[in-house]
Amino acid sequence: MTRKDEKFHHITFETHIHEHERFNEKIPEIKEQExxxxxxxxxxxxxxxxxxxxxxxxxxxLFINPKLKLYTSFSLPLDLLQRLNKVARLQYKNSSRNKxxxxxxxxxxxxxxWECEELLIVAADRNRTTVNQWAxxxxxxxxxxxxxxxxxxxxxxxxxFDDSFHDQLDKKAGFPIYEEIVQMIRGKELRITKKVTNIxxxxxxxxxxDIPKGYTLKEQISYQELLTQExxxxxxxxxxxxxxxxxxxxxxxxxxxxxxxxxxxxxxQNFTEDTYIIGTxxxxxxxxxxxxxxxxxxxIYTNDYYNKWNLRLYIEEVDIKIDFDGQFAWVVVFxxxxxxxxxxxxxxxxxxxxxxxxxxxNYTENEWxxxxxxxxxxxxxxxxxxxxxxxDTFLWPVRCTxxxxxxxxxxxxxxxxxxxxxxxxxxxRLFDSDQE
Length: 436
Hints:
There is one protein chain. The protein folds into three domains: 3-228, outer membrane lipoprotein receptor (LolB), chain A (Clam), CATH 2.50.20; 239-345 and 393-434, Roll (Nuclear Transport Factor 2, Chain: A), CATH 3.10.450.50; 349-391, no CATH class. It is built from nine helices and 21 strands. The protein has helices at 86-94, 143-157, 163-172, 223-228, 239-257, 263-270, 294-307, 349-365, 370-389; strands at residues 9-17, 20-22, 25-27, 30-38, 42-46, 51-55, 60-65, 70-75, 101-111, 114-122, 130-136, 175-185, 188-201, 216-217, 271-278, 290-292, 310-313, 319-323, 328-340, 393-407, 410-420. Strands 9-10-11-12-13-1-4-5-6-7-8-14 form a twelve-stranded mixed β-sheet, with helices on one face. Strands 15, 16, 17, 18, 19, 20 and 21 form a seven-stranded mixed β-sheet that branches.
């Protein structure tokens, strides 16, 4: 971009994060300065924590962390999947988008030198965010070009909203001069106010639009980094951590090769004698996938072999903690369990419906009241019908925790814990009558 051909307007803001309470701790008020640089083809947002550059000439979006000297770069048109890591892609694809609601209140007032109209923005998010925004059309730059630039920036900054929200905002909004944002976070109010202090035409400084020297490209970012709009430090693995990463690859290879003739050798090499395994297919200690001992490992992995469970560990995004003088390690990694339902495994939709009918017959013979029995029947039948309506290939996200112990210089599994995600109502529920 040739700066002499571009006319920029420099806009300064004051952001005020009011005193609030978080986890029973008083957080003092914070005042921050932010600035925008706007031309017909470029938008630059600058704060202490981050820079965001939308450049239509070079067709790219840059997100910069000046403290860590990191940046990530997206080509335009914007596709967030470009830079999201593999787990983040799954999160983004499977997360719902908030539509929000934007209303012109027909209220107007003058703020500093600008005649403004009020917009009420209600975001259908978990924090019940509301924004009272006072916006004006009386600005010295082209609003249409600003909308084009800001829509790209906002889609990056607000990934939890769908396209209709951004379209609504552009159709109803001018340029925001004053905003009051209120959120309810765990029952406590957080209030943020943001006000424009100045808009002037000014030459763009030479060091703003380009990546500063010495900054490192971050090839992939997590979903958390996208939501918080804050790049995390790059991770460098130690030699010990690289050993553990290789161990995880070897563990996953079992599910790829499935050599049952080498199972005893593989288990002996990779598990301690008193290994403890907690899987997803047990509720109480002592059940099949909640037991202790190396023989248990043989039984569980044999079961996985015959039932054709496929496990993929997202090892490139593993979290590792080594402690106790390098003798123990805690490893947390996201995984995906896949299974294809087939007639041979008695896991077809027809076979599952037949098993449901057997269970329903048992419900009618239990000593339950009629209301509970009917609800159990409805739940069982609807679960089977809904699950197979979604397809015969089952994909389950799984959380994997490995406790590793170094034995004779080699890492072995001392404890292994798999768990399903569990938001909403629990999959297994006990009744008051079951308690002592």
